[in-house]
Amino acid sequence: MTPILPPFPHTRLRRMRRTAALRDLAQENRLSVKDLIWPIFVTDVAGADVEVPSLPGVTRYTLEGAVRAAEHAAQLGIPAICLFPYTDPAVKTERCEEAWNPDNITNRVIRAIKAEVPEIAVMTDIALDPYNANGHDGLVRDGIILNDETVDCLVKMALAQADAGADILGPSDMMDGRIGAMRTALEGAGHNDVTILSYAAKFASCFYSPFRDAVGATGALKGDKKTYQMNPGNSDEALRLVARDLAEGADMVMVKPGMPYLDICHRVKERFGVPTYAYQVSGEYAMAMAAVQNGWLDHDKVMLESLMAFRRAGCDGVLTYFAPAAAKLLRES
Ligand code: PBG
């Protein structure tokens, strides 16, 4: 509760803003390298270790490149890296079998990073879209996204990633019941220490477009994702999803996108008090970078202010393409 203030001039709130030292003392929230998770793209098709056109400064890595990126992140003190695969269109099918192939690019990169950079936490993405001929996060029959059949596939994906050594599984698919199914399967397979960061409140957003370019899903996607991702007009529903996923065994929850949905981050943290993350998604990053490239915004300032906003809203951390640049700056200051 904000205390009722005695009248001016006893309360000159500017007193605490007069010098940098006083502002430091009065600062309520802080941003640290330890709040960052770095999403990276990995591929074994030709043309890797190049920049993603719609995401300036973001690279699609080969396996070796991904290991070097993880080393760099660990040196900067970033606690976790999150892997997203760009799959050869030739291996995409309607049944998405490549998703749980123990030797798919994601699983090979998990093993390589855990072997060479064991100190960094490896997070994964669980959804069928990078492997799906029609670009959806679930199996499709007669134009319908199948929930329960998709959950069976996601469980297989989760087990393959846990076997490869993933520390954090990130289901981003928005099917109902997948957290409980994964948790049961993980316990049954002896993976009782693998954590789940559920993309619990994921909205059907236009801000994912550059990501779909980065994973090669843009041309593939038929229709939209509105029957499984949330309606941007809703807020109470986000709380129901978070409650449900926690009850099913999620350790952490995510709100996505980030900046346009800070009200959701705030409500989730206030209501549940659990580890809460936001994804500053590709479109948010691309928007900032476009303004930076035009000379309209300052790179470092827009990066740090936007990341601080997540902390102020109550997030424990942020998935952001800015992670290495932000980490470097935060360490220097
Ligand atoms: C899909 C997935 C998406 C993102 C992460 N996982 C896109 C989508 O739902 O279409 C978006 C991340 C970003 O935009 O940075 N499983």
TrEMBL record:
SUPFAM superfamilies: Aldolase
Entry keyword Lyase: yes
Known pathway: Porphyrin-containing compound metabolism; protoporphyrin-IX biosynthesis; coproporphyrinogen-III from 5-aminolevulinate: step 1/4
EC number(s) stated in the UniProt entry for this protein: 4.2.1.24
Active-site residue numbers: K202, K256
Domain of life (superkingdom): Bacteria
Gene3D superfamilies referenced in this protein's UniProt entry, alphabetically: Aldolase class I
Catalysis performed (reactions): 2 5-aminolevulinate = porphobilinogen + 2 H2O + H(+)
Hydrolase found in the keyword field: no
Gene Ontology MF terms in the entry: porphobilinogen synthase activity; zinc ion binding
Keyword terms: Heme biosynthesis, Lyase, Porphyrin biosynthesis
Subunit structure: Homooctamer.
Family the UniProt entry places it in: Belongs to the ALAD family.
Protein name, as recorded: Delta-aminolevulinic acid dehydratase
Organism (species): Thioclava dalianensis
